[in-house]
Amino acid sequence: MAYILERTFTRTDTSTPWPWSGISDSIQAQIAGLRSTHGVTMAESISADGLVATYTDTCSSESAYGDYFEAAQVHWQSADVEGAAESNNIIIDFAVLENT
């Protein structure tokens, strides 16, 4: 079984900060630890023009990913990632690529 989720962030210009730029290195390390604990792997790609960041998360099941997301969400909320995206007109798209 596999669960693959793709998160895409699109900004209008490269001077606009990514919404996660306010997350400290220590919080990033905690989130990475949560990925490891819950068996989530993440691949990152940035478009050549620097306007689109794509993160592809892979996990054994939707349930396992949900456990990771719930645990990591507190960190994203404390950094106000959604608010930063909204105030900077960054579009966030989510797509489930596989759920088998």
Keywords:
single chain; 100 residues; alpha+beta; 31% strand
* Distinct helical segment count: 3
Distance between the termini: 5 Å
Q: Which fold name corresponds to the CATH topology?
A: Alpha-Beta Plaits
Broad CATH class: Alpha Beta
- Count the strands? 4
Q: Short description, anyone?
A:
With 100 residues, the protein is an alpha+beta fold.
Can you offer a commentary on this structure?
The structure is a single chain. The chain has helices spanning 25-37, 62-78, 81-87; strands at residues 3-10, 41-46, 52-59, 91-99. It has a 4-stranded antiparallel β-sheet with strand order 2-3-1-4. The mean pLDDT is 94. The longest helix has 17 residues, at 62-78. The termini are close together. It is 37% helix and 31% strand. The protein is an alpha+beta fold and 100 residues long.
